[in-house]
Structure formats: structure tokens, C-alpha cells
Amino acid sequence: MATDPLTRARSQWAGGNAKAAIGSGWDAANDALIAGDRVTVEAVSALAADIATATGGKVSEDAAQLSSYCRLSLDGVGSGVQATSVLGRMFGRTKRRKCPDCAERISVEAKVCPHCRYRFPVD
Q1: Residue from 67, 50, 68 nearest 14 by CA
Q2: Helix, coil or strand: residue 119
Q3: DSSP characters for 55-109?
Q4: Torsion sign over Cα 109, 111, 112, 118
Q5: Contact 77, 41 (CB under 8 A)
Q6: CB 104 within 8 A of CB 72
Q7: How many Å apart are CA 29 and CA 33, to the nearest integer?
Q8: Are 102 and 116 in contact (CB under 8 A)?
Q9: Of the candidates 12, 54, 72, 94, which lies 20 to 30 Å from 105 by C-alpha distance?
Q10: For 69-115, how does the pLDDT look when each residue is reduced to its tens digit (9 = 90+)?
Q11: What is the pLDDT of residues 33-64, one digit of tens each?
């Protein structure tokens, strides 16, 4: 049995077990992102896209989600800069900061807190 998750995912897919291949693909993608390994993340994305195309239903949706996650994660891989949350980008969340006056979470672009009207200093 293969030890690294990407090889295991490829073997599982070749053996017809798409669901297990997707699970191993998630492991491979997360390990590669931690290590800053862009090549492996791209390979997982390609494998997941192949699975999504060849299957249907929930398995296809799960594979498409893995492929999207990998593509979105590639923005920060290997650049030495930690990217903002991939899930945040996938679901449209914006960066937030805490108001020093009322402690509410607000947009980083806000000049005035909408809750307490605190005015942020201009740089």
C-alpha cells in the first residue's frame, strides 16, 4: 500500500474507489499546503477534476469541491506569504477587524464603526 496520500489517492481511483480517492486527496492537499508544495496541490486538483468529470452525484460534487479548494489555495502556496482563509474566499467572506471601542467585528475597509460610530485614525 502506498504511504503518501497522493499516491494512495491515485491507486484508489485506479481501483475504482472514487470516494476513498477523494478522502486521500484531501489529506494530500492539506499536507502539501502545509509544506508549501505547489506541484502536489496542482496534481490533487487535476485528479479531483478527473474524478468529478467521470462520476456523478455526491461523489462528483465532493471531487469538484476538492478541486476548487486546491485551485483557490494555490494563490499563496510557495510564495512565503500566508494566504487569507480559503474557505472565506470560497464563501465570499471578507476580512474583519475588531473595533477598539465596542469590540464588534467590522470590515477592515470601514472608516467609522457602524455600531458605536468610532472613527478610525487616517494613516
Answers
A1: 50
A2: strand
A3: --HHHHHHHHHHHHHHHHHTTTTTSSSPPPPHHHHHTT---EEE-TTT--EEETT
A4: positive
A5: yes
A6: no
A7: 6
A8: yes
A9: 72
A10: 998 887 655 544 444 555 555 555 567 788 999 988 888 888 999 99
A11: 888 888 999 999 999 999 999 999 999 999 99
At 15, list the grid cell. 481501483
Instruction: Count the residues in the chain.
Output: 123
Grid coordinates of 91: 464563501
Residue 122 half-sphere exposure, CB side, CA atoms within 13 Å? 0
Residue 34 cell numbers, joined: 502545509
Give the residue carrying C-alpha cell 475597509: 109
Return the sign of the alpha-carbon dihedral for residues 7, 13, 14, 15: positive
pLDDT-derived band at 2, boundaries 50, 70, 90: very low
Q: How far apart are CA 32 and CA 53, in angstroms?
A: 23
Torsion of CA 92, 87, 80, 66, to 10 degrees: -120
